[in-house]
Structures are given as structure tokens and as C-alpha cells.
Specification:
The two termini are about 15 Å apart. About 20% of the residues are buried. The protein is built from three helices and six strands, in the order ββββαβααβ. The strands form two sheets. The chain has a three-stranded antiparallel β-sheet with strand order 5-1-6. Strands 2-3-4 form a three-stranded antiparallel β-sheet. About 30% of the residues lie in helices and about 25% in strands. The protein has about 100 residues and is α+β, with helices and mostly antiparallel strands.
């Protein structure tokens, strides 16, 4: 059996959460900042990325988050591959973990 690590590619049914010590700080304009106390590193997030990270609660799946984002941004094309690549990048940078 293949063991899953934090940087493996997620599937549509994968759930995700912020890594321990990582905080999502929403800003007034809909964007946000992810901050890791352990690594003393932060990332600025646009509206879509901020919304995606707001679903990083260990209960939402990639598919559920994608549905929610498409409801919020109905006129934008939101690709599952782009979202999963972004989540994979966050996991590789230790801001997110797969559940």
C-alpha cells in the first residue's frame, strides 16, 4: 500500500486543514494572510485563495470547497486542477495538511 505524505496529490474526496500553528487572518477586502508561527513565514492570499483556505477545517473535501467557491464566484472559471495544485503547494510549504 502507498503511504500518503503531506505533499502527495489530493483527490476530490480528500479533506484538508491548516497545519498546526498556522492562522488565517482575513483582511477587510476579502483577501487574507496565512501566517505560520513556527516558520515565522506568511503568505498573502487573493480572494479565491482566502476563501479556499477558509474551508481548511478538516471537514471540507476538495470537491465541496470547489462547489462553494463556484457558488461565490459564479462568473469565474474555477478549475479543480488549479485548486488542488494550490493546496498541494500549501502542503509542501507546510501551511496545510491532508486529513
Amino acid at each position: 500500500m502507498h503511504e500518503r505524505d503531506d505533499t502527495s496529490s489530493p483527490g476530490p474526496g480528500s479533506t484538508f486543514s491548516l497545519a498546526p500553528g498556522v492562522r488565517l487572518e482575513p483582511l477587510g477586502d476579502g483577501s487574507a494572510v496565512l501566517y505560520s508561527r513556527e516558520r515565522d513565514e506568511s503568505l498573502s492570499l487573493n480572494h479565491t485563495a482566502a476563501l479556499l483556505c477558509s474551508f481548511a477545517d478538516g471537514r471540507h473535501t476538495v470537491s465541496a470547497a470547489l462547489r462553494e467557491i463556484r457558488e461565490v464566484f459564479p462568473h469565474d472559471t474555477v478549475e479543480e486542477a488549479a485548486l488542488t495544485a494550490f493546496l498541494g503547494d500549501l502542503a509542501a510549504r507546510q501551511f496545510l495538511q491532508w486529513i
